[in-house]
Design brief:
This protein is an all-alpha fold. The protein is 86% helix and 0% strand.
């Protein structure tokens, strides 16, 4: 007897392992996206200020970077939520209604205080960048570097 697990169980366990890897990669992509968004906005602002660029359209470039980056993060987090829902389904199948970590995490994640804290922390970088980019664009009209 090679394995005590049946073929569908072996498949699910291997799939579960790969899904965990994909979740980790997606989280790393979201965090990298934030980092590169901050760097890109900083580089554009440095260029605009140092070169005294008078065109208001170019001053909107950081806003476009933020909107694109924030949208990308939204897509990544939507993908994460979809994978997490599938993992909870698999966990419940293997471990019963109590499930495992993902089932526990989902219950905690939806508690009111934790939900708002996570919402703020997941969006604080992009929100702050958006407000800063908007402020810089509006300020450009008044200062005319």
């Amino acid at each position: 007897m090679a394995d005590a697990l049946t073929t569908p169980e072996q498949y699910r366990l291997k799939e579960f392992e790969k899904l965990r890897d994909e979740i980790e990669a997606t989280l790393n992509a979201a965090w990298s996206n934030e980092r590169y968004g901050v760097i890109a906005c900083g580089a554009v602002w440095s260029w605009l200020i140092s070169q005294k660029i008078p065109y208001p359209t170019l001053w909107a470039l950081p806003l476009l970077i933020v909107v694109a980056g924030w949208g990308r993060n939204g897509g990544l987090y939507s993908h994460l939520f979809l994978m997490a829902e599938y993992m909870r389904t698999v966990e419940r199948g293997f471990l019963g209604p109590q499930g495992g970590w993902d089932v526990y995490f989902d219950a905690k994640r939806n508690e009111k205080l934790i939900f708002y804290f996570r919402f703020v922390t997941d969006n604080i970088v992009w929100g702050a960048l958006f407000l800063t980019a908007l402020w810089g664009w509006v300020l450009h009209f008044y200062m005319r570097f």
